Amino acid sequence: MSIIEGNHFIYTVRQGDTLYDIARRLGSNVEMITRANALYPPFTDVGLIFPGEVLIVPLTTASPQPNRVYQIVSPGDTLTQYVTRYSTSLDLLTGINPAIQDPNLINVNSVVLVPAFIYEVEPNDTIFKLSRRFGLSMNSIIEANRGRTGFSPDLIYQGYRLIIPLPTSRNIVVFHPMPGTTISNREFLEGYARVFEGVALYRVVDDNGQVVAKETAIQTTAGAPSYGYFGTQIRFDRTPSTRTGELWVYSRSPRDGSIQDLVQIRIMFS
């Protein structure tokens, strides 16, 4: 599974930009940007970029919160555009970015945390196969990569890197584990949730419908109407009976106990 570790910026090229300037400003290097965006034949001339092109920019420095993707705001950008690009909700985007005071006003060059990860294409991958593997629609992957040189919905090449949206609900996003990855007992679970009294829930089921980890409460750092961060270890109650399954993160209605804001993440078991 070729999910690329580390933090990344998503940056739209502006008039006068060079790869060297972008790398220097954003804490990357030319070689990493070139590889991440396939800036070489047969996709394009070596190192060629043009205004309006969307680039993945890997960061060279470590972060206390690894494997995050950040959108750098370009002139004319709006949060509504990001909602479409990353197949998420305006509430969630503003909720996980507390620096945004007015969702109708985002400053150029500011940084917006977005629900996404970076994936490197493997042999025989297709957009359809990836959508099934990650539990997403084909259109969500296509939309996230719109404006990128070398991207075609019909044919993706080994080694090309894609922006993949994370599954979200209006009130919950899980940053780890990521879809399609392998988990085991005591796997770390983290994300953000806007939930009643700050209590979210998780469970793990395998593809036979067996409950691997029973419903367990997670305390977030803030209750609704705020989005709170959560981080905990997943505790297995029994051994999985299949190699694949799902992690569910959700809340329950305080009125009737029904499941709300269910986020389902496709996983594999070690």
From TrEMBL:
SUPFAM superfamilies: LysM domain (SSF54106). Transmembrane segments: none annotated. CDD domains: LysM. It comes from the Bacteria. Residues 9-57, 69-114, 117-164 form the LysM domain. This is LysM peptidoglycan-binding domain-containing protein. It comes from Exobacillus caeni.
